Amino acid sequence: MKQREIKFRAWNKKKRKFNDSLRMLLDGNRIEEDDYGSPPDIEEDIILLQYTGLKDNTKWEELTKKEQQDWLNSDWSNSGKTKIEWNGKEIYEEDIAFNRNNKYEIIWEEGGFWAKNLSLDENECYEEFSNGPFIKELKVIGNIYENPDLLKK
Questions:
Q1: Does residue 3 fall inside a structural domain?
Q2: What is residue 111's DSSP assignment?
Q3: Rg (CA), the chain
Q4: pTM to 2 decimals?
Q5: 92, 50 in Cβ contact below 8 A?
Q6: pLDDT higher for 150 or 41?
Q7: Average per-residue pLDDT for the chain
């Protein structure tokens, strides 16, 4: 069985943006910035969000020009990505996604990823988050940090 890719993205609370130039050092306690600025404090400044190992159903043509350019330039090895390689947006914890007329927040709870239904008025409802029919229709529409308004019903 193939293991999922383990990676994180980092939300910088002070700068209020995702920082793609951060690298966590192997001891897990420090982070350094590629732009040689002062390193952010991992406990005070940074929220690490884990990649689920899954991708959504967003088509290349549905991306903005900026999203397309960011993806083409995101390969750290500079091997030269092409749009033919595109196969959906990576899904991270605390992303907000849409599926079957419902909005979901992707969360890590009780040792796994879950999709918390934000569209229901009743008690919290969770969908199992695995690579199946649910994921095939899912589209990431934002995240709780850059798009907190999406958390509203």
A1: no
A2: T
A3: 16
A4: 0.81
A5: yes
A6: 150
A7: 81
